Amino acid sequence: xxxxxxxxxxxxxxxxxxxxxxxxxxxxxxxxxxxxxxxxxxxxxxxxxxxxxxxxxxxxxxxxxxxxxxxxxxxxxxxxxxxxxxxxxxxxxxxxxxxxxxxxxxxxxxxxxxxxxxxxxxxxxxxxxxxxxxxxxxxxxxxxxxxxxxxxxxxxxxxxxxxxxxxxxxxxxxxxxxxxxxxxxxxxxxxxxxxxxxxxxxxxxxxxxxxxxxxxxxxxxxxxxxxxxxxxxxxxxxx
Length: 239
Fold this sequence. Notes:
It contains four helices and twelve strands. By secondary structure, it is mainly beta.
């Protein structure tokens, strides 16, 4: 895994932004596809009726039914993420924990991956999740390109807890140049990439721990990371 040198200090490159070629050259699929049929939708806790005693004019009690919230569990999770869904763009993928530098650099095609040195969701800090921008053999993060601010993101945890987030930032063209791969053709480069620094320091900053709960999703924009990375940030929804 590549590393960034800043002010004489070696900072581990925690993320796929600097170490993940999320689209394999020659295997781009520019079409669209529905979510993987093998995964059921994530079920969000709903409002449940509960009997509430209310006094009558004769001071007798009768039962009236009023809605109350079965709250989404607080962000103090202890389980691990197993599934991620963004209903508005048809993303519904399995989530795995990366266990090797190889997975951080080139995750599998079976789902999304939490990079090794990031946090599991629900721990009150940043969780950095990567996946290829592909639709085959199963739909992964390509539809992330179409996500809108305010879109709901659901994370199913291994203990049954469901964590809810809303998209608050959409950041295309995050630079992370890599000399190991062919450069993006100059006539196709957006200005933000053409004049970007020649290191991954800015890209790496998106994977760093935060002092608040945050979900950061990343995928690629082209045939290799020299085409820029696409990042989506989602903040928690508290009921």
